[in-house]
Amino acid sequence: MSQNKNKRKAKKKRNKTKKRKGLYIIFTIIIVYFFSRTPSLLLASPQSTYAAEYGKIENNMEVKGYVVRDEKVFKSIGEGDVKYFVSEGEKVAKGEKLAEVYLDDLDEKSRKDLKSINLRLENIKEKQNDTNVFQRDIEKIESQIENLIKSIQKDIKNKKYDRIKIKKEELEDLLNKQSVIVGEKSFSGKNVNQLEEQKNELEYKINSSVQTIYSDSPGFIAMGSDGFEDLLNYNTLHEINSDMLKMLENAELDIPSKNINEGSPVIRIIENYRWGLIVKLDTKEVKNIEIGDTVKIRPVNQNNELKAKVKNVIKEGNEIIILFNVNEFIDNIYNIRTLNVEIIRSRHEGVMINNSSIIEKDEVKGVYTLDISGIAEFKPIKIKASNSEYSIIHYGSFTAKSKDDPEKKENIKTVNLYDEVVMHGHKVKEGEKAK
Prior knowledge:
Blueprint: H1 2-37, E1 49-51, E2 53-75, E3 80-84, E4 91-92, E5 97-103, H2 108-128, H3 135-157, H4 161-182, H5 187-209, E6 210-214, E7 219-222, H6 242-246, E8 259-260, E9 265-282, E10 294-299, E11 306-316, E12 319-326, E13 338-354, E14 359-361, E15 364-370, E16 376-380, E17 383-386, E18 390-393, E19 397-401, E20 409-413, E21 420-422
Antiparallel strand pairs: 1-21, 2-9, 2-13, 3-5, 3-8, 4-7, 5-6, 7-9, 9-12, 10-11, 10-13, 11-12, 13-18, 14-15, 15-16, 15-21, 17-18, 19-20
């Protein structure tokens, strides 16, 4: 009985051992199959990659420039207060009133007093023309004067001189009464004379104490002055030199206040949108630049590019002064004297790649890109331009000399936009899984 029990235990043990061996064999087969179908993960060498994107490389030169404008500054002829009739940036016509400077502390009260006096004079003269005022008294006095004159004339004719003196006194009395009613001695008459005198005094004061400024050409309004408007204008640019440019280093705009002194800038008018830029360079930095050439410039820290035409070139030993004409408006150009710009000497656009990606295989420059499975593939490239970090290359395809026949050209497929490019090309091999 015990013998049969031992036999059953031994059989169970053999069955468990067989089952474990079977599971191990199946697991081993799966592992072998997996490694036979894909490159070994142990052999893979993960690499950092990036997408090939469109970009540009520029060859720029940053310089300090000095702004030139067609402008005129109107200055005060004395000390006083200024009143403006236009605003900065406003476009004005020739002959337009720009400002008034009230000299010798003349304020707005004098102008208001003059206006009030003119209104009172008009009112009084209207009343003087009203014939119904004291009409009976006027007619009676005029009749008496007329009769008395006739009587005096008759006495003179009859040589009754003793009566003439008395009648003359009566005539003077009548004339005086007439003057009191409607003449200079009347209430209105006295007021008219006084007001006319006050009017003349105020008009003289105002005309001699107000400086009125009119535009002598159409243009745009600007406030303030840095004192270099006469030096940096288009009429005197042929005289510019390095010493003059040194004076501009500390140019600062002086904005006028309401109270100004004699000779202070009141207002400035700029004739048009045109402005210029003067730059000074070393002759080694720029070559073959001539009058009439057009280059692109860009104010530093701004995105807008401007077309600048070379108006003049002045050589001074190893230095060169260039004047550019610019017809495109930029913010605050009317109030700045110095402007840092980048002169764009050249620009190349295309697919941008890191220089670390570029390798040379069989004397052909190229990069490794990864396919959908992460396998490295070598692709030839043709470089347009490079800097210390990046290169711009042709994308899609490019033409090159045929290897079989150097006299012929062939179309070569290259990197496309958004291809996955290996960052460090020298760390990868063709056909290797790199990701």
